[in-house]
Amino acid sequence: MSIQIYNTLSKTKEDFVPLEEGKVKMYVCGPTVYNYIHIGNARPMIVFDTVRRYLEHKGYEVNYVSNFTDVDDKIIKKALEEGVDSEVISQRFIEECKKDMASLNVKPATTHPLATQEIDGMKDMINELLEKGHAYVASDGTVYFRTRSFAQYGKLSHKNLDDLRGGNRSLLVTGEEQKEDPLDFVLWKPKKEGEPSWESPWCDGRPGWHIECSVMSRRYLGEEIDIHAGGEDLIFPHHENEIAQSEAANGKPFAKYWMHNAFLNIDNRKMSKSAGNFFTVREILAQYDPQVLRFFMLSAHYRSPLNFSAELMEAAKNGYERICNCVDQLNYLSGQAKGDSLDEKEAAALQEASGYEEKFDAAMEDDFNTADAISVIFELVKFANTHASEGSSKAFLEALKKEVVALSDICGLIVERKAEMLDEEVEALIAERQAARKRKDFARADQIRKELLDQGIVLEDTREGVRWKRA
Ligand code: AMP
Ligand code: ZN
């Protein structure tokens, strides 16, 4: 069976056939970095990281590109409030975003381009669009895309140009009277006082948002790519405009498959700062293990709306722990196991257990149905819990554990807890360190301190002796 992907372009599930055998070129629109990322932003990150992991599991080499939008009105506003350069704000929140991604076990992209580092490429593409008659320069130096020059405009959002025009009279806002048509959108705009800007043949200014992704995608992945993804709010106008720009400039289809995740709501309401129902990932991670948040995100299909609430997070915590407890138990039994080799009954049980992997793959191949895939992990956990016992062989227990860990790992879920150092072991190491210091072997003493720190144990030398705590 091949992987089926729901393509927003065709509104159907299609067989996944990559442009180049064994390789996948994938672009995911990344966040605008003016604050800590919120839990809504974490949904596409986790969902598409899981798509990537599954493709890699199937042996594809995935070139995964995800940008940071580091020039934008919101960043400029925040920089003005703090009295610093925009770059200070964007750099700070890129670093913070990367920390959140690492906590959530989201793999770093192959390339994480920054919009401000790609201005030359954007000017090149704008020039190409001007030369081909798909863009024009207004009297104040603004460059617009001539939307009606791209006949297929609307094909992704399934909107009709004339309906768009009729329903969007408000598109013509003050200052944009110079547009030939209300549907035209900005490729380059003149600078305003105090804003970051770049020189260009049209005016000193900065790029529009949409051109950024068309350019970064072309630079790092080529003119034609396999998968382009993001949240469903990006379908129109962002992705529709990306298609218009890229296909008008390159004369080729842009992305083969367009994937969009549905939104995350909080307590059944749209997440909104002003309504007071808004959480950053950082706030949630102060309360929950990041793996619980990842589990929660994958517990629904990515195209279904997902509701965030304390009850559902508790349910996610229980679900996640059920898997971890199974692995703990298998580890414990394996440590105690007497026999080393499989008996006939165990060999038959392992044969049966391998069926879960096929079932897991079938769920993932049905448009990445992680909800069903996680149910299969639960079935496997139940199977392991019933079949593993004190009489099991080490080989059997290890094989079961390997299977549970492997399927969880494809979802990016870390289910094997690091064994915590026992208090007696900590005390013994501290005593050894004291002895090392007494004989002036400071290298050994430092090594022990570091060893403990790696286990999350912090030492404090006081007058009364050494105190320690778990960080
Ligand atoms: P932004 O920084 O607003 O451009 O968003 C970055 C990514 O997060 C985009 O793919 C958005 O579609 C996605 N996103 C924003 N809010 C939500 C939400 N509440 N639920 C799911 N995805 C979201
Ligand atoms: Zn984009």
Structure at a glance:
By secondary structure, the chain is of the alpha/beta class. It has 15 helices and 15 strands. It is 47% helix and 15% strand.
Tell me, rounded to a whole number, the average pLDDT.
94
Largest sheet: 4 strands, parallel
Q: Estimate nothing, just give the exact number of structural domains.
A: 3
Q: What percentage of residues falls in helices of 4 or more residues?
A: 40-55%
Main sheet: strand order:
4-3-9-10
Number of helices: 15
Q: End-to-end span in angstroms?
A: 48 Å
CATH fold call of the largest domain: Rossmann fold
Gyration radius, to the nearest Å?
27 Å
- The assigned structural class equals alpha/beta
The first-level CATH class of the largest domain is given as: Alpha Beta
Query: How many β strands by DSSP?
Result: 15
Q: What is bound: which ligands? A: adenosine monophosphate, zinc ion
Order of helices and strands: EEEHEHHHEEHEEHEHEEEHHEHHHHHHEE
What is the CATH superfamily label of the largest domain? HUPs
- Shape designation: globular
